[in-house]
Amino acid sequence: MNWQAISFDWNQVRAFLATAEEGSLSAAARALGQTQPTLSRQVAALEEELGVTLFERAGRAMSLTDAGRGLLDHVRVMADAATRISLSASGQSQAIEGKVVITATGNVATRQLPPIIKKIQAVAPNLRIDILPSNEVQDLTRREADISIRHARPEQPDLIAKLLFETSAHLYASEDYLERFGPLESIRDLERAVFIGLDRTPEMIAAMKEFGLNLKPEQFRFNSPSGHVLYELVAQGLGVSILGRDIESYSDRVRALFPEQLKIPIPVWLVTHRELHTSKRIRIVYDLLAAELPKHSFV
């Protein structure tokens, strides 16, 4: 091994990779929790050390040069190796202290996690817990989170998943909207309704077709990836949307339409990385979530 040939700093490499993947220095700085000038200096230092230009600057955007693209795959391999080292070290830690990042949908993060976090804090007061509300599936293999609460079983072999329970989703509307819409005698009547979409209109149209409901894209006049926004739009009488039935535990502003006929099963999985599952701080949070989530959910 020629140790003298390895002269660059890992922080510089990480700055390069974050900038390449995020698309700008400002976005990369936010992702790494650094200031933009610090990140810019790290990228510039790596370019100087390697003697190549890695990015072309076009305003705030950064695009990779040929040299940058040639380096990117190698840097990603380094990042994967660094992540595996971090996972392995975290898994060996037996201290009940430090940070645990939990990701869940906005509704679960807002309604169900806070009372459980209170219990976790009582049992392990030295833990710092970050809650990441997101409808996107975070990549646990890259340490985007330590524990994930998902509605789909993960396929990666390095992840451990536990099915906690199954709830359901239904179509909901407000009484105000239904009064204006008129009588609902069958599911097919909803083919005249205004719909509020989940930002994935084709998927929703396909799902409803399985129930004999034929919808058109032009019916989706409002869309949002946020469950909270969807609920408020429905509650304001703007249309019909799919919502998890747990809203019935805290709101009487909307009601389910044909709940027995239009029932979409929603499994709830608790997921962590196999390496992290041996960490005492991760395991205590994982086990408490597994025990408490079913108690705080509308099954």
What is the share of helical residues? Answer: 25-40%
SSE pattern, N- to C-terminal: HHHEEHEHEEEHEHEHEEEH
Question: What is the strand content?
Answer: 15-25%
Provide mean pLDDT, rounded. Answer: 83
Distance between the termini: 59 Å
Class inferred from helices and paired strands: alpha/beta
**CATH topology grouping of the largest domain:** D-Maltodextrin-Binding Protein, domain 2
Structural write-up:
The protein is of the alpha/beta class and 299 residues long. The protein has three domains: 3-92, Arc Repressor Mutant, subunit A, CATH 1.10.10; 98-165 and 267-296, D-Maltodextrin-Binding Protein, domain 2 (3-Layer(aba) Sandwich); 167-265, D-Maltodextrin-Binding Protein, domain 2, CATH 3.40.190.10. The protein contains nine helices and eleven strands. The protein has helices spanning 10-22, 25-32, 36-50, 66-92, 106-123, 175-181, 201-209, 227-235, 280-292, and strands at residues 55-58, 61-64, 98-104, 127-133, 147-150, 159-174, 195-197, 220-223, 241-244, 254-257, 264-273. Strands 3, 4, 5, 6, 9, 10 and 11 form a seven-stranded mixed sheet that branches. A two-stranded antiparallel ribbon has the order 1-2. Strands 7-8 form a two-stranded parallel ribbon. Strand 1 (55-58) and strand 2 (61-64) form a beta hairpin.
List the helices and strands and how they pair.
Elements (H helix, E strand, L loop, with lengths): L9 H13 L2 H8 L3 H15 L4 E4 L2 E4 L1 H27 L5 E7 L1 H18 L3 E7 L13 E4 L8 E16 H7 L13 E3 L3 H9 L10 E4 L3 H9 L5 E4 L9 E4 L6 E10 L6 H13 L7
Helix pairs in contact: 1-2, 1-3, 1-4, 2-3, 5-9
